[in-house]
Amino acid sequence: MADLRVGIAGLGTVGGGVLKLLDGNAELLGQRCGRKLVVSAVSARDHAKNRGVDLKSATWHANAATLAADPKVDVVVELIGGSDGAAKKLCEAAIAAGKHVVTANKALLAVHGAKLAAAAESKGVVLAFEAAVAGGIPIVKALREGLAANRVKRVYGILNGTCNYILTTMRESKREFADVLAEAQKLGYAELDPAMDVDGVDAAHKLALLAALAFGAEVDFKGVYVEGIRHVSAQDIDFAATLGYRIKLIGQARLTDNGLEQRVTPTMVPLDSPIAHTEGVFNAVVVEGDFVGTTLFQGRGAGAGPTASAVVADLIDIARGRSAAAFSVPAKDLKKYPAAPMSRHRGAYYIRLMVKDRPGVIADVTAALRDQRVSLESMLQRARSPEEAVPVVLVTHETEEAAMTRALATIAKLDTVTEPPRMIRIEQPEG
Ligand code: NAP
Ligand code: HSE
Question: How many alpha carbons lie under 13 Å from residue 231 in its C-beta half-sphere?
């Protein structure tokens, strides 16, 4: 069979990894695909930069968009990044030119995924993005193919390695967020501008894609409720352990009576759940299906090797002539669910208050909870100090978030409460 000619735009961490994989495993890939995968064209900003492999036989495109029109390219691999600009132009041009597109760009797909999927379908080309969600974990293929027989009840997971590394290190070293972030930046584990990661945006991009795949829905990034990890303290991580939980940044999507709930929030997960033990830069995704039950996928969510593994898996599918609708069902059949408001979310809550240690304080706090019909499961006060504020931790039974929010607004106004209350959602595994 004729070679599959691949044009790669973006030769950085992921692009460089893809070049090395295609070069290092060329023979194996040829056997598995029944044809060779050949890099026929490339594009990046700096032509002079050494990419670690011989690119003499590949055509250089100074402008990434022209790669789409290159007659020697069958598949365009977009590894530039960003939700708009060069990446979007290239993908649109490639699809318009009737070329398959493989991308690792979750920001682009979270915002423009529905339109790109429809365009690809109308042109009869593949839009593949295994690397866009959880790096090396083959979760896109799992949802689109291996679990396709199931109605998904819930999909959730640890979708950002940087946040998981920070939370793991905070717990292990009992240090605060800012300190651990600064160290992670020095070590190169976190970006100098960490906002996309620590504010939960990167995880929200990935969650929007998972939700679309799991529920046959149009990607709705704007419908994702997002909280990052900046406000998680070493003290909360410690209390979580005492209560039998670990704090993780969890992205979760499920269909509710109020619509599609998509949220990325610091969440307490039970210590005896496998996801609690996904540590450091690792990612994990749990899919609960009606027939399969609970499945867990774990692995490296970023880095040159794992991400290249996912990009090349998409190329292998294309080389073998295998294809599926980008988001599991044809673009015209994707549903537009309303976004379920967080005020209607039901769950248990961890609340930490800093209070003056005086008689009657707890009575005032519990009165505010009683007035909103929020029921307490347990309470914890560790220290005793007549002068300084002391932490009081409350764990509620399942309640509606709107009631919790109203109770906390009242509690925050009490004279004896010295800091804004901290609230972290508690998640239970299936059951
Ligand atoms: P990166 O290291 O910053 O590489 C970006 C590449 O794009 C560079 O080679 C750069 O050229 C090139 N580039 C920038 N602007 C361009 C333009 N206008 N035209 C052509 N090329 C241009 O980024 P990355 O980490 O590899 O990420 C690439 C994509 O993969 C992103 O969408 C990212 O979200 C996604 N992703 C990354 C990871 C990861 O672990 N890094 C994991 C999963 C998904 P120069 O090299 O010449 O500067
Ligand atoms: N910055 C992401 C993470 C990797 O920390 O998981 C790219 O998706």
Answer: 14
Q: In 10 A of CB 300, how many CB atoms?
A: 18
Q: Which domain holds residue 162?
A: 146-300
Report the CATH number that the domain containing residue 182 is assigned in CATH.
3.30.360.10
**Catalytic one among 206, 222, 248, 336?**
206
Give the global pTM.
0.96
Question: Does one domain contain both 75 and 171?
Answer: no
Do 127 and 176 belong together in one domain? no
203 close to ligand 2 (CB < 6 Angstrom): no
Which CATH number does the domain housing residue 118 bear? 3.40.50.720
Interatomic CA distance for residues 93 and 91, integer angstroms? 5
- Separation of 137 CA from ligand 2 center, angstroms? 13
| Residue 201 neighbours by CB under 8 Å, 6+ apart | 195, 226, 228
Mutation pick for ligand 2 pocket among 139, 160, 192 (CB with most ligand atoms within 8 Å):
160
Ligand minimally distant from the alpha carbon of residue 310: 1
Checking if the pLDDT of 428 tops 80, the result is no
Task: Give the model confidence (pLDDT) of 336-349 as tens digits.
Answer: 999 999 999 999 99
Residues contacting residue 179 through CB under 8 Å, at least 6 positions apart: none
Ligand 2 atom nearest to CA at 196? 1
Q: Please indicate, yes or no, if residue 384 is contained in any of the structural domains.
A: yes
Closest C-alpha residue for ligand 1 atom 8: 12
Whether 174 is catalytic is no
**Average pLDDT of the chain, as a whole number:** 95
For residue 370, what is the domain's CATH number? 3.30.70.260
